[in-house]
Write a structure and sequence with these properties.
alpha+beta; 130 residues; seven-stranded mixed sheet; 32% strand; UCP032025; single chain
């Protein structure tokens, strides 16, 4: 699945938010509807979009009803860096087919996005330089 990292100023900020909202080893995102492909999603990942680019993923632990007529997407509270891939913005979440998932970057590899300001990153992307 893909989701916009709404309110995140940078990948670093998203990483910090995930860690800050972690409770009992997970982060819970509220959604109105349970995905139709829920059985396929458990064990997969939620890919985060920031400035029209997939920048990382958080492993999905599962889905549960929260008792208020909505559902929680249960995530591991970490952001795994992936090879930056352009992706249009959208509302809510969308499915991402496995053939279209960007590969993970290893623990020492980086593409420098954490160090760039969002404005600079956006301008470089418009020019096709990142």
């Amino acid at each position: 699945m893909t989701k916009i990292a709404f309110g995140a100023e940078s990948p670093k900020h998203l990483r910090e938010r995930l860690a800050a909202y972690a409770q009992d080893g997970e982060v819970r995102l509220t959604t109105r509807y349970l995905p139709k492909r829920v059985d396929e999603m458990a064990g997969g990942s939620l890919f985060w979009i920031h400035t029209h680019t997939i920048i990382g993923r958080s492993p999905i632990l599962g889905f549960i009803e929260n008792g208020a007529g909505r559902h929680w997407i249960r995530l591991q509270p970490r952001l795994i860096a992936v090879r930056s891939t352009p992706k249009r913005a959208h509302q809510g979440w969308r499915y991402l087919e496995e053939v279209n998932t960007p590969p993970d970057l290893d623990s020492v590899e980086t593409d420098g996005r954490d160090e760039m300001s969002p404005k600079m990153l956006g301008e470089l992307m418009k020019m096709g330089l990142v």
